[in-house]
Design brief:
By secondary structure, this protein is of the alpha+beta class. The chain has 6 helices and 2 strands, in the order ααααααββ. It has a two-stranded antiparallel ribbon with strand order 1-2. Helix 2 crosses helix 3. 12% of the residues are buried.
């Protein structure tokens, strides 16, 4: 048993029970973005959240324990993603990464945007030419320290 096997079981139960991430998140009291990342193995759950997941997905005690262990982060199997949707994010960073870096440094100085003190919101934006995906990323700015 490992964390990946637990995620596979969760996905299988989600599909079989026709569940939506937003409904699962509501039961866990967290955002759909965080909940999805957690149940796909990228975040650890506290005991209460793990118990909710155990009930939702009929997990064993061992599988529930795996949800509470700090995971090895990074979910992509290759350096350059092959899934078309994920590849577009890679493309965005490849094309606009230096622009994003330049503009963040100009506004905030030398540092990084945290992926730890971070939030994400994904919504549908109606548009007559075809609905749009709206993604808002918000991370705390962390300046490099002088010493």
């Amino acid at each position: 048993m490992d964390r990946n096997q637990v995620s596979v079981k969760i996905l299988s139960a989600k599909v079989a029970r026709k569940m939506r991430w937003s409904d699962i998140a509501a039961k866990m009291g967290k955002s759909k973005e965080w909940t999805t990342a957690a149940l796909l193995g990228q975040m650890s759950l506290d005991e209460h959240q793990a118990e909710i997941a155990q009930n939702l997905f009929s997990l064993t005690a061992e599988e529930t324990a795996w949800l509470q262990i700090v995971p090895y982060k990074g979910s992509l199997p290759t350096a350059v993603p092959t899934d078309p949707l994920i590849y577009r994010w890679y493309e965005i960073v490849n094309v606009y990464g230096t622009t994003i870096k330049e503009l963040i440094h100009e506004e905030f100085g030398d540092g990084i945007m945290s992926a730890i003190d971070f939030s994400m919101d994904i919504t549908r934006e109606p548009d007559p030419k075809g609905d749009r995906v709206k993604v808002v990323l918000s991370g705390k700015f962390l300046p490099y320290k002088s010493y």
